[in-house]
Amino acid sequence: MDVNNQHINEKVDRMVALHGSTVDAVIPILQDIQHEFNFLPEPALRRVCETTDITPAGISGISTFYTQFRHSPAGRHSILVCTGTACHVKGALFVYEAFRRELKLEEGEDTDASMIFTLGKVACLGCCTLAPVVRIDEVTYGHVQPESVSSLLRDFLTKKNDGISTALPAGAGRHVSQGEIRIGLGSCCVASGSSDVKMQLERTLAQTKINVDVRQVGCVGICNQVPIMEIIKPGESPAYYARIKPEEVREVLLRHFKPEGYVNRFKTGFYNLFENILADGAPKSFRKYLGEQRDTPLSKFLGPQVNIATENRGVTNPIDLEGYRGGGGFESLRKCLAEMTPGEVTDEIKLSGLRGRGGAGFPTGQKWQLVKDQADPEKFVICNGDEGDPGAFMDRMLLESYPFRIIEGMLIAGYATGASHGIFYIRAEYPLAVMRIGEALRICRENGIIGSSILGSGFSFDVRIFGGAGAFVCGEETALIASVEGKRGIPRMRPPYPVVKGLWNKPTLINNTETLSLVPWIIHHGADAFAKTGSPGSKGTKVFALAGKVKRGGLIEVPMGITIRKIVEEIGGGIAGDKKFKAVQIGGPSGGCLPASETDMPIDFEALKGAGTMMGSGGMIVLDEADCMVDIAHYFLSFTQSQSCGRCTFCRIGTRRMLEILDKIRNGNGMQEDLANLETLALSTSRGSLCGLGKTAPNPVLTTLRYFREEYEAHLNGMCPAGKCLPLIHYEVTDACIGCTKCAQRCPSDAIAFAPYEKHTIDPEKCIKCDICRQICPVDAILIL
Amino acid sequence: MVKLTIDHIPVEVQEGISVMDAAATFGITIPSLCFLQGLSNHPSCMICLVKDLDRGHLVPSCAMPVSDGMNILTGCAEVLEARKEALELLLSDHVGDCEAPCRISCPAFMDIPLMNRLIGSGNFEQALSVVREEIALPMVLGYICPAPCEKACKRKQIDQPVSVCLLKRATAQYEIPQNDAFYSISLDNRKKVAIIGTGPAGLAAAFSLLSSGHACVLYDQHEKAGGTLQYDIPDEHLPRAVLDAEIAVIRKMGAEFRLGITVTREIFRHSILPAFDAVILATGTMLSDPATMFGLAPDEHGTYIDKKTFSTSLPGVFAGGNIIREQKMAVHSVAQGKMAAKQVEIYLGTQHPGTEGESRRKSVSATGPLFEPEWNEYLKESSHDQRTIPAGGISRGFTREEAIHEAKRCLRCDCRKPVSCKLRMYAETYGAGRKRFTGPERKILTKSFHHEFVVYETEKCIRCGLCVEITEKQGESVGLTFAGRGFDVRISVPFNQTTREALTSTAKLCVESCPTGALAFKDQEERKPL
């Protein structure tokens, strides 16, 4: 055996020792191998087969099923361009193409010649309000423009190099606190630079010796205003500083707090002066809102919302157990264990009218009852956090920001159903969520909240995390179970339902993250209180990820029954820019597009279904007149098509053929009979597919055909009314051109001749339609025709 | 026991069984490509869909357990349409030819690839019987056939088409003189058939009927038999000795030739009709008005001869060849002569109706022209040499050795499982075509010959997963696996190994279970003549 293989074997053996040698250890082992080697070297896989029950056929099947795994070496850093819905409508593909050009990638390549970067797409990073978003390793960049990719790569490499020197002195000393500063550290916040703000804050506090508590809180939901800093000072109304930049932190801080001691004051003044000179002319970009102020964008955004799943939003540190307990946390669990029988708990959930928030809306209490009724002594509860829909980030936010609440919900579910094991199934693309839940579980275990005889009650329940390896179909419960069991994530026929035969053929309760997060509130406030909110058939609240072309996007929790229009116009503040509101896409790839005229419809499981869409897990993407509905249908279908497990005929081939027809239509080559075939295929795929993925995949096509058929017809006539479909459009310079040459300088294909002070022209032969010129033109002189 | 309704019939079945099994108990067979008794039967093909009336859904019957009060329809329009669509989707992603294009383009539907393989292995005798299944005059056509088959031959794209016509001639050249056993067949229920005309159609009809053991009397106004072959084609194209030799075969089989007799209306009505069990009119274009001549009445469309059944208004009187429509190629007339003879046999009750088309199944799957990367895939099992030119000139034809050499150039583009392929069978049953859902580009066909006796053509696979499960269940140490997912999922061998390592004890079972030609035995011949 050569040295290299021996080295691999030793590492693999350690991983096997950690995860075990049974078949279900395969995904965690593969994840470790991938993490260690950046890809899956064949000798490592062979070693796994030699030392475990995992077979060559098994490991090959699994490692090629999940997108997380690579079989060829990758570059040192991984660039992931988010192609979630919000990013898509804001031009993610232009960004992706710009990276390809920058890295000089040939067709079929994903890694640059010097093996520094590997480029990929990711379905959704869950930072929809910062679209388009790009993640390089652990660093997330928001609002990325095609023309800025080279500077972005430089920025990344520079920061990487001084990574060590950015360690900062710790925050304020242990004096009497002058107040509290809250800073959001959800994924969106971090992506928008909140870590830098926090660093600057800590540095300033250290320099000024101002003594305040800095509390890092979970997602504040106002993702469109991040980074956001909230200052709470006794006797003052809380002040919010939205979109604050690191260089503005000092000024804001000094407005509210006085530095300690004269010398410090002097030093502060000196530094201030010095820095102001350096930063002279820098525009102040932040906006200040006071907590009680009315009619601010903030109050409008927050006003119509009702916080149950997101209770105490922006107030609690996600992994501060005492903080959670202080707000009534684990009180519901205690109440259940001490005062209620499992039957009473189940009845309470039934009475509340709670329905599953994963999409289909099955009554939660009824599901619990079915599991409870099973005689098998061994049962499982699984929290489905495999949120993979492009354009949705509810689960991520809940897992990151309220880990204790979800754990509490799971424990209550376990108690009610008689289960003793719980599993958090969280997708690998959500590292922060995995980390927070892991940390919270550790804390709970230390405090007797999970483990044996919880809170001294005699009820025992243990919980572990399973990291999903990148397959949207695993959101389907039988596929999820298959993947936990160490198989390819292929849905199977139901019945039997998992409540009867689930994980390892044991009764298994699978609830969505949001569903579980609502449970403690229901127990605490009572079923009636919950049922009071919402519509007759759909009780309580629903969390939505509002993104797209609205002024204010973010994570919102609204009462069921609220109209879509109210969400878009009041909470979202209507359409950004001067474009017209065209449609709302609800429910992600399984949902559909509703035209603006249909948005007076209430948010309600049945109402949405009747309109051809569905609640889905809660993505809500607002579209304006610049969005092409054929393109949107193509976008969603290309997602589901790429995520099909490939098992059943209709989904495997049907979605592909539909996509090809949409391609043809987008390219202007569509014929009338293509529309008919598209419709036939959509209906038969929906009718004949085995699982929910295939059954709902045609929804975006069917709804756009239903509500926007004229746009399809226009494409058949060679026109894309929204100006989105590249083969049907071209770029032109108007007379407004001032000859600034910016476009000529940036054009990556030399399609624009350099002509200072003259009107520029675009050579259609050379133009690659990358959209950079239009985006950077200072006078909007470039039009899409 | 569970009570449910299947196709409006209340039935009672054992608990826990599938709807498919329940239906089978009552004689209702539900089709499936991916079902195999004893395996997990995780549905994939979706051909077994049935309608669950109460829930309003289509459900895969192979995996749906029966439950009380279920109301199932197995053959309603919605079910039939869904099955057809599933088959059409599978066909749109299935790369391969059920029948080779040479055979499809041959008017007589001769099994050319099989003939080629038999010649290639030196078995001229069986090759000739394959030819004679469809062609009564192989030697004659070996001289004069314009060979549409060669124009369709896929080999043409790579270099030159296989020299099919000369190969066919060679089978006759080397086998007819010593093929005596063939001539003496007799039937217990022997019937007597008159054939008017001794051109290619008449001779072919006689050959077919004689082969089945019937008696034939052939009438011709000329002194010599052969019709246009005898009187229209110059000797340098068709040596008369060749024609005479082939007519001699038919004579030797027991045909009675009444030559030099012009069949008048009178003779036809009074001497022929009463004396024979059936008559075949094969007068070619000689008669300007055969209808009046033989007293035929037109049908409601105004035609005298039914183009499908070759029957006329007179019971027992059939017609074939150029009397129906003028065709330039003699092979057409030969084909029609045989088909008319088959109809006569059905009429006489010596052949079951409906069986006459069995040997003429069209391709439900066809690849069209080869892609360049496919050349080498096909050449894996054929000679790389250029087309063989007979050393003795075209008129002498191939020597045995030359024929064997040339026959090995055949690309074997026909399917190895034309009979057992379930995809083809169900596509025919449900009228599914490959074109409705064709994608913009078809996959490139690959052929793997790593295994000792199994060929694996992954692009013919419909991803039913039976082989994967079989290798897993039977404990193959390497086995097969699914690789990738979604539309691109395929069956592969772990760690870049080959089918040789993957299929050991399970090879036979996997091939036999495979519902298509994706896994087949290398030397599989499902149409080998007796």
Summarize the structure in words.
The complex is a heterodimer of chains A (785) and B (530). With 785 residues, chain A is an alpha/beta fold. Helix content of chain A is 41%, strand content 13%. Chain A contains 32 helices and 20 strands. Chain A has a 5-stranded mixed beta sheet with strand order 6-5-7-8-9, with helices on one face. In chain A, strands 15-14-18-16-17 form a 5-stranded mixed beta sheet. In chain A, helix 1 (3-19) packs across helix 3, helix 15 (342-352) packs across helix 18 (403-417) and helix 17 packs parallel to helix 19 (431-446). Residues 162-175 and 262-285 of chain A have low confidence and may be disordered. Chain B is an alpha/beta fold and 530 residues long. Chain B has 4 domains: 2-75, Ubiquitin-like (UB roll) (Roll), CATH 3.10.20; 101-178 and 360-407, no CATH class; 188-349, FAD/NAD(P)-binding domain; 441-521, Alpha-Beta Plaits. Chain B is built from 21 helices and 14 strands. Chain B has helices at residues 19-25, 77-92, 101-105, 112-120, 124-134, 138-144, 148-152, 155-158, 164-175, 200-211, 228-231, 240-252, 265-272, 290-294, 330-348, 372-379, 400-407, 422-430, 466-473, 499-502, 507-513; strands at 2-6, 9-13, 49-52, 57-60, 71-73, 192-196, 215-220, 256-259, 278-281, 317-319, 454-456, 481-483, 490-492, 519-521. In chain B, the strands form 4 sheets. A 5-stranded mixed beta sheet of chain B has the order 2-1-5-3-4, sandwiched between helices. In chain B, helix 4 packs across helix 17 (400-407) and helix 5 crosses helix 9. The radius of gyration of chain B is 27 Å and the shape is globular. Chain B starts with a strand and ends in a 9-residue tail after the last strand.
